[in-house]
């Protein structure tokens, strides 16, 4: 086994016995990494809309899906039990290191992550760009808490394990499974705050769907991911700071100024329409750009993205294409690792190349 942190070494040691025994059962070995969210949520009545996320354990969630053990042999790890608005960089690194070690040491065939739905797309995209393995990683969650009448979590978990256990899902990048659909990490986003049909891929549509525990695909992700990704975060525990500003009618320049003063390395603009913002905001961003802050033009609009053919903007400022602002931020943080290692600003042309390929 490679050199690892003590916590991960301990985890892997306890998993290696399981992995060897599991091998003899002929079923795929799936590890469930639980992080919390509504799938682990609980309410005081089965019809109540308000509830507390991240309450029940991963073992309790699995116990609500009895047929799951027929499709895979399972091992679960409670990574944390939080609402995903409280997701932290340290937990992203923990997920990355655990998954990398599991696959590098052949301890499982696929990974399922249970996650709060609010930021699930961001964790999925981060892992899509950093995990250097072709084995499936699937995120799932729920819109209704575990105590709900018609809770959606158990079926979502069954479907997610089915996808992670299938040979058809090798080398498809990190996926999100919700409401019977398989969605690609690069395009998936949350488009409804309450409904069980809360997720969609607004630009490309879903990768496929699941019926009777069988994934059926009708497209592939065209963006670079996992084994083809150039981003190497091994041994790291932080990323360059990149923030987002939101554009709207007569928006203030205060947030842009504050971010530049705080020495952020990058700013993603969630522009209006085709990545537009006011002349006043543009002026502030130009000051940042002169100081070496990387600026990316993205949009607050759900689909269509931003390409280079824009209004009177500096053509050297890269655009996010179809990445939404929260994903453009993750891609820029990873792109900027290169400049943080060399202490030189990353050439905007190089940033644009990255946004074209991922
Ligand atoms: N806000 C909570 C979270 O993202 C609950 C939402 C959910 O999981 O659906 O964890």
Q: What would the average pLDDT be, to the nearest integer?
A: 93
Count up the domains. 2
CATH architecture of the largest domain: 3-Layer(aba) Sandwich
* Major pleated sheet: 8 strands, mixed
Major sheet strand order: 2-1-3-4-5-6-9-10
> How far apart are the first and last residues' alpha carbons, in Å?
31 Å
Quick take:
This protein is α/β, with parallel strands linked by helices and 358 residues long. It has eleven helices and 13 strands. The chain has two domains: 6-228, 3-Layer(aba) Sandwich (Rossmann fold); 242-357, Rossmann fold, CATH 3.40.50.40.
Describe this structure in words.
It is a single chain. 32% of the residues lie in helices and 18% in strands. The chain is of the alpha/beta class. It folds into 2 domains: 6-228, Rossmann fold (3-Layer(aba) Sandwich); 242-357, Rossmann fold (3-Layer(aba) Sandwich), CATH 3.40.50.40. The strands form 3 sheets. The chain has an 8-stranded mixed beta sheet with strand order 2-1-3-4-5-6-9-10, with helices on both faces. A 3-stranded parallel beta sheet has the order 11-12-13, sandwiched between helices. Helix 5 packs parallel to helix 9 (325-335). The protein is globular, with a radius of gyration of 21 Å. The relative contact order is 0.10. The model has no long low-confidence stretch (mean pLDDT 93). The structure holds glutamic acid. Residues 36-38, 53, 83-85, 116-118, 141, 143 line the site of glutamic acid (GLU).
């Amino acid at each position: 086994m490679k050199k690892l942190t003590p916590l991960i070494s301990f985890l892997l040691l306890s998993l290696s016995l399981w992995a060897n025994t599991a091998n003899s059962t002929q079923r795929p070995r799936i590890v469930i990494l639980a992080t919390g969210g509504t799938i682990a949520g609980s309410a005081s009545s089965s019809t109540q809309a308000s509830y507390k996320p991240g309450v029940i354990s991963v073992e309790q969630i699995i116990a609500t899906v009895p047929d799951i053990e027929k499709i895979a042999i399972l091992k679960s790890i409670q990574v944390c039990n939080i609402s995903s608005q409280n997701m932290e960089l340290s937990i992203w690194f923990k997920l990355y290191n655990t998954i990398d070690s599991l696959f590098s040491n052949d301890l499982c065939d696929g990974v399922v992550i249970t996650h709060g739905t609010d930021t699930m797309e961001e964790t999925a995209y981060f892992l899509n760009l950093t995990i250097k393995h072709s084995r499936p990683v699937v995120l799932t969650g729920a819109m209704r808490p575990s105590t709900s009448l018609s809770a959606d979590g158990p079926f979502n978990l069954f479907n997610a394990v089915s996808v992670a256990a299938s040979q058809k899902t090798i080398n498809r990048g990190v996926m999100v499974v919700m409401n019977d659909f398989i969605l690609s990490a690069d395009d998936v986003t949350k488009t409804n705050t309450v409904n069980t049909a809360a997720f969609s891929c607004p630009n490309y549509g879903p990768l496929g769907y699941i019926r009777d525990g069988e994934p059926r695909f009708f497209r592939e992700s065209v963006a670079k991911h996992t084994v083809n990704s150039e981003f190497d975060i091994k041994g790291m525990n932080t990323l360059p700071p990149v923030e987002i500003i939101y554009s709207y009618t007569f928006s203030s320049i205060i947030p842009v100024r504050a971010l530049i003063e705080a020495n952020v390395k990058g700013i993603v603009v969630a522009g209006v329409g085709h990545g537009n913002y006011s002349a006043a905001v543009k002026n502030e961003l130009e000051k940042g750009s002169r100081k070496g802050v990387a600026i990316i033009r993205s949009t607050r609009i759900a689909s269509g993205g931003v390409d280079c053919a824009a209004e009177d903007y500096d053509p050297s400022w890269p655009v996010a294409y179809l990445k939404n602002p929260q994903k453009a931020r993750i891609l820029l943080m990873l792109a900027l690792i290169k400049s943080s290692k060399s202490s030189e600003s990353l050439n905007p042309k190089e940033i644009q190349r990255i946004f074209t390929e991922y």
